[in-house]
């Protein structure tokens, strides 16, 4: 079988392996990583697969992370790690640039990159015969997207392209399984904060204050609505032309503090 992402921690990945084997009698032999973030990659080594596949930019980012200082073992935590697992990031041994097709038995699996969106190196996993798309964190349904590595213009462009594809079912990185209606709704969140954020940016308003002042309408009911502060700080770097694949944590902290203070007032 092919796994799509690996979960955030050892026990999550091990449970995925056990449940999948119980249901099918089969093991994972390949894993596809949709993007670099740890809640999708940290469990990769515990899938025990022969091949880990990702976009070339994702592979570069994971390699960079693997070279940073880290603890020897995972800390013990319920439903997370038993404390004996080595803290190790499995670097993809196969990568692609635009598109790669896997022929897994009778199933065709198309790995597609449509340019920077949620990160600089996203992978969409498309099953054309089944009309199913695994969107990674380009899809976030009913949950406010966390956009710390993202490119708003790229997310909007990618969503528009997906909406033109022959897709019925979309599996998001966060939130319940949906379809094109849910994807269009999430795209419109980015259109809203991009449009209103640009007005505030042009007026010289800070990112944190802009995040507090923008009326999110129906998106106020989404889980983690206050992620707007991080999202706006990232969007400001896009407006200024200073955006890069790396996250600017200092700007996120500053925006969050401004946002919180303004909301309290």
Structural features, described:
The protein has helices spanning 10-24, 38-41, 56-66, 152-163, 180-202, 207-213, 228-240, 249-264; strands at residues 2-4, 30-32, 51-55, 94-96, 99-104, 107-112, 124-127, 132-140, 169-174. The chain is an alpha/beta fold and 265 residues long. The strands form two sheets. The chain has a five-stranded mixed β-sheet, covered by helices on one side. Helix 4 links the parallel strand 8 and strand 9 (169-174). Helix 6 crosses helix 7. The mean pLDDT is 97.
The class by helix and strand makeup works out as alpha/beta
Tertiary shape: globular
Number of strands: 9
* Helix-residue proportion: 25-40%
Question: What are the salient characteristics of this protein?
Answer:
four-stranded parallel β-sheet, 17% strand, alpha/beta, 265 residues, five-stranded mixed β-sheet
Please give a quick description of this structure.
This protein is of the alpha/beta class and 265 residues long.
Question: Helix and strand layout, with pairings?
Answer:
Layout: E1 2-4, H1 10-24, E2 30-32, H2 38-41, E3 51-55, H3 56-66, E4 94-96, E5 99-104, E6 107-112, E7 124-127, E8 132-140, H4 152-163, E9 169-174, H5 180-202, H6 207-213, H7 228-240, H8 249-264
Parallel strand pairs: 1-2, 2-3, 3-4, 8-9
Antiparallel strand pairs: 5-6, 6-7, 7-8
Helix pairs in contact: 4-5, 5-7, 6-7, 6-8, 7-8
